[in-house]
Amino acid sequence: MKSIYNKIVELRIQLRYHNYMYYTLDSPVISDDIYDQLCIDLIKLEKEYGKKNSFNKSKKILKQIGGKKLHIFSECIHKSPMLSLKSTNNISDIKFFEQRIKNYINNVDSIQYYCDLKIDGLAVNLLYKNGLLVSASTRGDGYIGEDITRNVYMISSIPKKLVGNNIPEVIEIRGEVFIKKSDFLILNQLSVLKNKKIFSNPRNAAAGSLRQLNPNITKQRKLMFFVYGCGTFISDKKIYSHNERLIQIQQWGFSIHRDYLLCSNIKDIIEFYNKIYDNRMKLDFEIDGIVVKIDSIVLQKKLGYVEKYPRWAIAFKFFSLDIETRIKDISFQIGRTGIITPVAHFIPVNISGVTISKASLHNISMIKKLNIYINDYITVYRAGDVIPKIRNVLVNKRDKLAQQVILPLYCSSCHSKLLYSSNFIFLYCPSSFLCPAQNLQRLVYFASKFGIHIKGLGKKNIIKLINHGYLCTPVDFFTLTAEKLQTIPGIGKKLSYTIIDNISYSKDVRLDKFICSLGIIDVGISISKILANYYKSITNFINTNYSVLSEIKGIGVNISYSIIKFIKNKNNIYIVFRLIEMLNIFFISK
């Protein structure tokens, strides 16, 4: 039973991480299919484990609609929740979707469906009162999003005032903000010329453009907006059809894509899906499937929703294109927290116009799960048309050139003996700040906005400081002087004094931010807040023990193990004590 619970905790950690990466940072690292499978695995294990309190913890993660805001923008509360959609790429699930609706609502023989494109952009909620746009927000956690009104004003396809007749007293208009493929290519070309960061895909470009503190940058990005529905609708004119509502919204000045279908049978839905799939590459914007909704607003309200999904809608996702290739080698990279990540290198292949030659295997357990050998034939795809992934190992094609993968015994950077995690899912180097490969990434993270946030000290300058011998541990940030900084190429007198001032400001740091800055395995932003709220002081935290940690709500076996391993490392605790002497670490109740 203990091994089952350990697996449950590991799945919870993975889902929290992937929720944060997708909803908060707009940078997903796995496909929706893999995410859904993680959810299914968690529910299955919870049923096997059979403890109510355990399942309640998992339910909170599974019910999460979106992510918490990044605290760059103020909060904006939705008048009605912005729910996610249950997704599938299995035709049988579409048939089951219809049957479930008929079972849920008696005496319904024929159902009319509205089908449209699932645009791969950023969901936005627009609130209009008496025809005037008063606020715009991201999905956020489904109930509270980020206020992006000033930036949305810069999108020409979003009217500031509704025009025409039957203007509602209050309406929440919802749709996707996106950037066209052609404009995305131009944006990245300009970024290369200006030596600026390039975006990995159009969705990230759209999300990043909406989260600019300077609205003029948003204006330059040529963002587009298509409506897909509405939330709260208070009007004298009652409209009980989803399609008719969209037609009315279009008459008020919005754009709705011409590819949609009203139908009353599954066969037509599947034909529409196949048609869109065949023509998707001709579109000048990214889509990843179609959305099927009940057209009747009355039926929608009767069906309601379950967990984070409405019962009356489902996303029918496209399959990713798989290409066969062959593994050439598997390397092992050292991450910031010391975790060893296997990376499969294969003969380069072109998928949807992009050449890929490697894919992360995430952790060593994946090698065993995939049963992968060097020189194996594999099929690869791009999750979400972005991230390279290995779909299958073609074991039936394995030949005499195949070689078993030999896991490393020692860290390639500091040569310390590698250790297994408590659940044997990953290998890691325990040397923390003493490991050069880890130390660089730890120092960058410590100074970043996720840590204590020292403005002006990015990765490039930190590397220069390390190479000059000025920076070895986080303690050394606070011994830097303007004179030392001025010896670094690219840092002049003015910038050096600005950085010293910023270092001084960073000495006042919240307890949760300080704990997060230490880079303990599995201890990110949310876990750091839980720990800070429980211990309330850094002294209490570093004097904790395993039994106390494992009893804290939200802190499982693996996280407790990671924290104790970090604290018991003499070099780590020496650095923490030095930092305590230099900083003002305070607690604010959340």
UniProtKB/TrEMBL annotation:
PROSITE patterns named in the record: DNA_LIGASE_N1, DNA_LIGASE_N2
Family named by the database record: Belongs to the NAD-dependent DNA ligase family. LigA subfamily.
Pfam families according to UniProt: DNA_ligase_aden, HHH_2, HHH_5, Nlig-Ia, OB_DNA_ligase
Binding site for NAD(+): D32, D33, I34, Y35, D36, S84, L85, D116, R139, E176, K293, K317
Top enzyme category: ligase
Keyword field: DNA damage, DNA repair, DNA replication, Ligase, Magnesium, Manganese, Metal-binding, NAD, Zinc
Recorded superkingdom: Bacteria
Record organism: Buchnera aphidicola (Cinara laricifoliae)
Stated name of the protein: DNA ligase
GO molecular function: DNA ligase (NAD+) activity; metal ion binding
Biological role stated in the UniProt entry: DNA ligase that catalyzes the formation of phosphodiester linkages between 5'-phosphoryl and 3'-hydroxyl groups in double-stranded DNA using NAD as a coenzyme and as the energy source for the reaction. It is essential for DNA replication and repair of damaged DNA.
NCBIfam families recorded: dnlj, PRK07956.1
Organismal lineage: Bacteria, Pseudomonadati, Pseudomonadota, Gammaproteobacteria, Enterobacterales
